[in-house]
Specification:
Blueprint: H1 11-18, E1 22-25, E2 28-38, E3 65-70, E4 74-81, E5 87-98, H2 100-107, H3 119-126, E6 142-145, E7 153-156, E8 170-173
Antiparallel strand pairs: 1-2, 1-6, 2-5, 2-8, 3-4, 4-5, 7-8
The chain binds a DNA duplex (13 and 13 nucleotides) through strand 3, strand 4 and helix 3.
Length: about 190
DNA sequence: GGTCTGATTATCT
DNA sequence: GATAATCAGACCG
């Protein structure tokens, strides 16, 4: 079990280290294969313009969840980090490992690559909602486990944003089939 | 394979 | 009134 103190560092150190960790909610979930970093200096971050009612969890202590509704439909979960101020790692994709039947039922598909491959999808599969906003990550229903083996992590550009889109703050497991979008071997110039 | 669009709501201008 | 850290389904080739 990762201690809460694991998150009391810069999001830019924590985020790559999260790839390969296992995230469970009520015993259901899988290995993290994709995360993105956001901090308060980042125009794409919800914390960029200062604290509001929605983003207050990002300004709280590290090691807690920040859950928000996206496009009026989906939930997305972030893991709040220690620095810079009001920073967090958005969990974008899991490799499903535990509770496959529960996740399939919640998602309405048996296709393992469609269960948790995307921030909205994984919240639906794990049953994460606004009720989880602000909860500590080292206490039930959350469970975060360190990787059993070193993970090959690739750094690239973030997805689905219009501002600061050139920053390479997305971290993925190399070769994973469970990413929200595949890695391009090479970028066109 | 790819691209486009509607769903639906909190938040901010 | 516009925008958004998204997804699923429709359509085109």
């Amino acid at each position: 079990m990762l201690p809460r103190a694991f998150f009391a560092r810069s999001v830019h150190e924590v985020a790559p280290g999260l790839v390969g960790c296992t995230l469970l909610v009520d015993g259901v979930g899988g290995r993290i294969v994709e995360v993105e970093a956001y901090d308060q200096t980042d125009p794409a971050s919800h914390s960029y313009s200062g604290p509001t009612a929605r983003n207050r969890s990002m300004f709280g202590p590290p090691g807690h969840a920040y859950v928000y509704r996206s496009y009026g439909i989906h939930w997305c979960v972030n893991l709040v980090c220690g620095g810079p101020c009001a920073s967090a790692a958005l969990v974008r994709a899991l490799e499903p490992t535990t509770g496959l039947e529960v996740m399939s039922a919640r998602r309405g598909t048996d296709d393992a690559t469609l269960l948790c491959s995307g921030p909205g999808r994984l919240c639906q599969a794990l049953g994460i909602t606004g009720e989880h906003d602000g909860l500590p990550l080292d206490e039930p229903p959350f469970e975060l486990l360190a990787p059993d083996a070193p993970t090959d992590v690739v750094r690239t550009r973030r997805i689905g944003i219009t501002r600061a889109a050139d920053l390479e703050w997305r971290y993925c497991e190399r070769g994973s089939r469970f990413l929200s979008r595949p890695l391009r071997a090479r970028r066109a110039l």
